[in-house]
Structure formats: structure tokens, C-alpha cells
Amino acid sequence: MAFRILSRVCTLSHGLKSSQTAFSTLSSAGSLKVEHDRRNQRFTVTAGSSTADHEYGVLKYRFTGEKEVDLMSTFVPETYRGHGVAALLSRAALDFVVEENLKAHVSCLYIKKYIDEQPEQRYKEFVIT
């Protein structure tokens, strides 16, 4: 199953204070969406088609202070690696940090790489080094 991301344009549903926030993008296999599970402090990518959602990746974080988070890890099953899933998770988590005006420790090496590769460098000021 090929999951080449056709569009990097993500849309954010306007329920930022709700327990889940969803980002979505299109892939050749249909729609992928990122859900933010605030209670369990994680972002997941699922394919939102049919009745059974399948998890394609997860990014975990934890609060280390009132306005500080640690972006701890991303995991994408081997079958779905190389198709932009981790980038989609990273963008959603970093957009959350920006929108909530948080500071982030970045323990995950992939997220560090993702931040460094962003040409506009909009996330750097929110990262605690």
C-alpha cells in the first residue's frame, strides 16, 4: 500500500481546547488524518476511511512544566515509513506548541531533524536547547 503524500497542506479543526484536534491531508490511498489525544498526550495518524481506523504512526509527548512539553518520540511502522507520516505528526505537534505558546524540549531525533529542515524556521523560537 503506497502512502505518498500528495498535499502537505494541513487543515486544523477549530476545537483547540477540546480533547482531540484533527489535521488531515490527502494520500494516494485516501485521506490521512492526525488526531491529537490530549488526555493521553499523543498524536496519531489514521486513515479515516471505512468504519475501522488503522493507526499509521504515533508521536508521544509529556508536559514537563506548566507551559513546557517534551516531544519524546515518533513511531511509524516499517510498512509506512518514507511516506511523510512522521513529518505529518511532527508538524501537528509543533503547530500545537506554537498555537498554545508552549516551549518544547525535543528528545526525538526525527523531530529535531524535521525542525532543522524547515526553511522558514518558525519552530526554532519555541524549542528549548
UniProtKB/TrEMBL annotation:
<dbReference type="InterPro" id="IPR031165">
    <property type="entry name" value="GNAT_YJDJ"/>
</dbReference>
<dbReference type="InterPro" id="IPR016181">
    <property type="entry name" value="Acyl_CoA_acyltransferase"/>
</dbReference>
<dbReference type="Pfam" id="PF14542">
    <property type="entry name" value="Acetyltransf_CG"/>
</dbReference>
<protein>
    <recommendedName>
        <fullName>Protein NATD1</fullName>
    </recommendedName>
</protein>
<comment type="similarity">
    <text>Belongs to the NATD1 family.</text>
</comment>
<dbReference type="InterPro" id="IPR045057">
    <property type="entry name" value="Gcn5-rel_NAT"/>
</dbReference>
<feature type="domain" description="N-acetyltransferase">
    <location>
        <begin position="35"/>
        <end position="128"/>
    </location>
</feature>
